[in-house]
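Budget justification aside, the reviewers requested a transparent look at the raw inputs and outputs of the sequence design task funded under Objective 1. We therefore reproduce one unedited record. The lines immediately below are the structure tokens for a 319-residue chain.
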């Protein structure tokens, strides 16, 4: 009985000693964790307040652009709204990115901090201009006389119909901007300051953006997909959209969902020069794409009587 009591007391003593060691180990681990966390926090605080992590000038900003022409560094820096010098950790990249995306010539922007060496990395996706936009024009009306001519088969003379009067406008340029493929208007000066070496598009759009914005995307896409060269699009008259093309002046009537079809029909009229002398032609009437007409002007010896010709639509509609 005494032996059993002795063994039990020994086991209890060993257990107490083991628990005591475990408690000591836990205390030591807790102390080391506290020291480690304090050390890391102190190191981060030192890094944050160290003078090296300061944005001092635009040379510390790296700009990556989707445009082949690198945008002007000073113009981008002026858009950031940063005061110098400023701690890199006080700069909010998301706020800067949002302010950049508000610029009409920037579609997307991302901003991130760079630690070594300290600075900012800005990636921007610029809008690509596809046309020069002329917002308004002053017009002077000029009256001309024209008539309708229905051409017969190739090689035969055309029949003349009664004459009518037409008005043409001599316009004077005003404010200029740029349009991208989605119809976003960009100030010309802002684009040129950010892209001093950028090339301007060859096509011009005339009229108010509110007039052509609903139709711009489908019209531009139709022109882009065709091989026809268009140099000017005039939206000033809401009842008559006018194009200046390599074939001549084209009247499309009120803009509508027929625009892609009208461009397709116009592209099929490349042989127009074999039926009508281009020097005598005033404009092509495509208000009804199933029955295109050509407004032509006879020679001076015929008293400048203008005549219009109804084209043979079979080769146009079924090229």
């Amino acid at each position: 009985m005494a032996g059993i009591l002795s063994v039990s007391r020994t086991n209890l003593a060993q257990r107490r000693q083991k628990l005591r060691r475990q408690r000591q180990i836990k205390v030591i681990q807790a102390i080391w964790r506290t020291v480690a966390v304090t050390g890391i926090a102190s190191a981060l605080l030192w890094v944050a307040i160290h003078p090296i992590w300061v944005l001092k000038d635009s040379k510390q900003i790296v700009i990556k652009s989707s445009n082949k022409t690198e945008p002007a560094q000073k113009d981008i820096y002026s858009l950031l709204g940063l005061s110098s010098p400023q701690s890199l950790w006080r700069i909010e990249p998301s706020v800067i990115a949002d302010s950049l995306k508000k610029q009409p010539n920037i579609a997307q922007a991302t901003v991130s901090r760079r630690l070594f060496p300290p600075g900012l990395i800005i990636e921007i996706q610029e809008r690509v201009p596809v046309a020069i936009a002329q917002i308004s024009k002053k017009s002077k009306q000029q009256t001309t006389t024209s008539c309708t001519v229905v051409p017969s088969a190739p090689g035969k003379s055309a029949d003349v119909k009664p004459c009518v009067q037409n008005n043409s406008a001599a316009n004077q340029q005003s404010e200029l901007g740029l349009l991208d493929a989605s119809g976003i208007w960009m100030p010309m000066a802002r684009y040129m300051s950010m892209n001093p070496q950028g090339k301007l598009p060859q096509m011009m759009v005339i009229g108010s953006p509110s007039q052509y914005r609903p139709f711009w995307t489908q019209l531009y896409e139709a022109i882009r997909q065709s091989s026809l060269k268009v140099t000017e699009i005039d939206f000033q008259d809401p009842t008559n959209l006018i194009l200046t093309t390599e074939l001549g002046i084209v009247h499309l009537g009120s803009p509508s969902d027929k625009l892609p079809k009208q461009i397709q029909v116009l592209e099929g009229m490349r042989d127009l020069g074999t039926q009508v002398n281009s020097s005598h032609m005033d404009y092509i009437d495509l208000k009804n794409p199933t029955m295109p007409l050509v407004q032509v002007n006879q020679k001076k010896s015929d008293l400048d009587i203008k005549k219009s010709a109804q084209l043979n639509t079979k080769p146009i509609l079924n090229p």
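The first helix runs from residue 2 to 49. Residues 54 and 76 are 19 Å apart (CA to CA). Computational costs for records of this kind are itemized in the attached budget.
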